[in-house]
Amino acid sequence: MTDPYDSYQRLQFDWPSDGVLRITMTNPGRLNSADHVMHGELVRVWRDIDADPRVRAAIIRGSEGAFSSGGDLDLVRDMTQDFDVLTRVWKEARDLVYNLINCSKPLVSAMDGPAVGAGLVAGLLADISIAARDARIIDGHTRLGVAAGDHAAVVWPLLCGMAKAKYYLMLCEAVSGEEAERIGLVSLCVDAGELHDKSLDVARRLAAGSPSALRWTKYALNNWLRMAGPTFDTSLALEFLGFKGPDVQEGLASLREKRRPDFSKDSPL
User: Fold this and answer.
1) For FRET with 249, which of 29, 53, 72, 133 sits at 20 to 30 Å CA-CA?
2) Which residues of the chain have pLDDT under 50?
3) Which of 9, 196, 256, 26 is nearest to 119 (CA)?
4) At what angle do helices 73-81 and 83-102 cross, to 10 degrees?
């Protein structure tokens, strides 16, 4: 019998504990940015996990000390030049959010280094989000030159309040893991060296719980996100209109010039 995860290229899988599936985003040398391949895989993996009876809890993390630097700049360039790519990625972005919300299995995120854009969708929509103290959480949209739509318009105000959401989304300010915990943007903050052990501990506890009780608790709580569906759809449309606007070319050029192979406090994302 073919394993449903064998076809993935940018997502790697292992089973660190009974019933716990760990997903590792990997795009070597690019801070695990979501390119054409990864963006599509981040959409369909939640359907595969939902249908897999072996999975009682899942963890998502990044490789090589980074969670994800967001949408790959080559993907962004193609979105500005090719309408078919733009519409495909628009649908993927929509399905990514809804597939995460509707996945019945508990999800834990372990965020270290940069946590930006497309990767951040999974990081913040996880049921239990855990950030390293020195993680740098950045929405990234307005710096690129498009509206801060996608998941951000839905989940940021719900998690940390409208005032904080507007401040961080409109100014594209980085949020450390420590600050993210303080304002309620993430569930927990731990030292970087404890991140992956803590995420596994939480996932094991979830896997040991009642599947039915956890599933329906998650379903009920996620109704807050489902009720924001019209806001999400509008924000996503406004974001993708921006990829045909004048600001995105300037933002893309600026990011290409400034992005570095390492992630430091001086990096643009």
Assistant:
1) 29
2) 260-269
3) 26
4) 120
61, 73, 158 from 195: Cα distances, Å:
10, 28, 24
Q: Which amino acid is at 139?
A: D
Instruction: Say how far apart CA 131 and CA 75 lie, in whole Å.
Output: 26
106-145: per-residue pLDDT in tens?
999 999 999 998 899 999 999 999 999 999 999 999 988 9
Per the document, the length of the chain is 269
Token pair belonging to 219: 């379903």
Q: Is 66 exposed, middle or buried, given 0-12, 13-18 or 19+ CB atoms closer than 10 A?
A: buried
Residue 34: Cβ within 10 Å count:
30
What whole-number percentage of the chain has pLDDT above 90? 83
Q: What is the pLDDT of residue 26?
A: 97
166 contacts: CB under 8 Å, gap ≥ 6: none
Q: In angstroms, what CA-CA distances link 206 with 16, 122, 234? A: 14, 18, 34
